[in-house]
Amino acid sequence: MVAELEASLKVSSVEVEKIKAVADEQAKTVGAEKEIVDAQAEKANVESEKCAVIAVNVANEMASVQADLDQALPAVERAETALAGL
Questions:
Q1: pLDDT by 10s per residue, the chain, length 86
Q2: How far apart are the C-alpha atoms of 1 and 78, rounded to whole Å?
Q3: In three state form, how does the secondary structure of the chain look?
Q4: What pTM did the predictor assign?
C-alpha cells in the first residue's frame, strides 16, 4: 500500500513538473507580449498628446478665422449694397 502511494506520488510529481514547465513557458510568452503591448501603449499615449495639442491649435485657428470673417462680413454686405445701387 505504501509502495503504491509512493509510485502514485512519483507519477503525480512528474505530471506536476510537466505542467509547471508549460506554465513557465506561457508566463514567459505573456511577459514578452506584455512588454510589446506596454511599448505600443506608450507610443499611443505620445501620439494622443500630440493630437491634443493639434486639436487645441486647430480650435484656436478656427476661432481666429471666425473672428476675421465676422469682422469682414459687414464690409462685404456694404460692398454688395453699393454694387446693387450702381
A1: 878 888 888 888 989 999 999 999 999 999 999 999 999 999 999 999 999 999 999 999 999 999 999 999 999 999 999 999 88
A2: 110
A3: CHHHHHHHHHHHHHHHHHHHHHHHHHHHHHHHHHHHHHHHHHHHHHHHHHHHHHHHHHHHHHHHHHHHHHHHHHHHHHHHHHHHCC
A4: 0.59
